[in-house]
Protein: histidine kinase
Amino acid sequence: AEAQARQGQKMEAIGQLSGGVAHDFNNMLAIIMGSLHVAKRRLERGDTDVVQFLDGALEGAGRAAGLTQRLLAFSRKQPLTPEVADMNALVRGLDELLRRSLGETVRLELALGGGLWRTRVDKGQVENALVNLAINARDAMPDGGKLTIETMNAFLDDAYASAHDEVTPGQYVLLAVSDAGVGMTRKVMERAFDPFFTTKDAGKGTGLGLSQVYGFVKQSGGHIKIYSEPGQGTTIKIYLARHYGEGEVRADVVLDAEVPMG
Ligand code: ADP
Structure:
């Protein structure tokens, strides 16, 4: 029954995906066809002033190409190359790129935990995820504000695991991205991970950012959770399992680590 439910969810996601793509694609085709149509009519009556319409068609085609690119990147079960990673070093290495993508008005603050455990993860995917989350935070703070990236050791206990799907209790490295932006309503929060779900204007949002992040975290055996309040801001927490190096002992309980509530 569980496998069936999962299959059902998969079919639903594919349905949403193809519905969303068909819709966006139609819009782009309409632009291309409309522009070519005008150009053709003009040429037929001897008017050669058509460059702007051909440009319009090219732009529409460019956007359609961009969409298929993103779709391919999304649907390809990208094989992950997990490596033992120090999350603090990863975040520090991205500092420059993140600051550049955040622009002038959004300040980036790093709060990197000491004695951080290591994790085994695809570094490129972590970077991708952080850039996606940072851009969402920037969009959520049109008048500027502070974006915080935090790392710390975390322990997910039995109570937390039984309250959340597919969470194994144990030790995790927590990566939290917080903004003081517009926040999400409950409805938006419920759909935020759905592919092609976006509340942004056409051309601004693709609705693929969070679904990509979700896919990567799940594929890595991790856990992701959104905390958000309209008007207050959003925190996205990503938990990646602790990697035990040689000589490191597995402990069931950990002091000195955050235990999330709820
Ligand atoms: P996109 O950013 O292209 O819309 P995403 O999948 O990244 O696609 O996000 C889906 C939706 O979730 C966004 O359109 C927005 O409504 C909401 N969202 C994501 N991140 C945030 C955030 N930090 N603050 C408020 N809303 C957010």
Remarks:
- The helical segments are 2-44, 51-75, 87-102, 123-140, 158-163, 186-191, 209-219.
- Residues 132, 136-137, 140, 179, 181-184, 188, 192, 197-200, 205-211, 234 surround adenosine-5'-diphosphate (CB under 6 Å).
- The CA atoms of residues 12 and 149 lie 33 Å apart.
